[in-house]
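Lab manual, section 2.4: Encoding a predicted structure.

Procedure: take the sequence of the chain (153 residues), apply the prediction step described in section 2.3, and record the output as structure tokens. A sample record is shown.
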Amino acid sequence: MARDLVAAVPGVQVWAWDRREENPADRTGFSRSDPASYYVDGHYRSQYPAASAFAGTWGLARTLDDLRAVVLAARAGGSRRVVLGGHSWGATSALAYAAWDFAGHPGFRDLAGLAVIDGGVLGAFDGTGTPVQDSPEEVRQQLAATTVGLCST
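Recorded output:
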């Protein structure tokens, strides 16, 4: 989508930002012939803040401070306007950014607009925050159904 935007809108820049926890993520499975089995069959290892003190302070405030550094850099030069967008958790982060109080400065004042795609985390808006706890077999069934659905359209 970024390439399409840059090609279609003269002078536009697209900056990609991601959360700190994406850096140490285990992406080993993507280099294998069957990535799904790597992640579904228990080879994947999660990084938990309790076992990783350096990640213990990576909450929403840190995330939004990191994102603000990118937004302010993108605005540098005076005439640049920033439309903050995101997909899934990125969309949720964009909405949180707009509502955040940065030491008396509301985040939405840094932005010309928001572009959110498929925003929200399961249960984020109904207050339950229920985590997804699918078994490996349920994940395989969901992947098979998704693959069939994608191939038939």
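Check your result against the sample. The radius of gyration is 19 Å.
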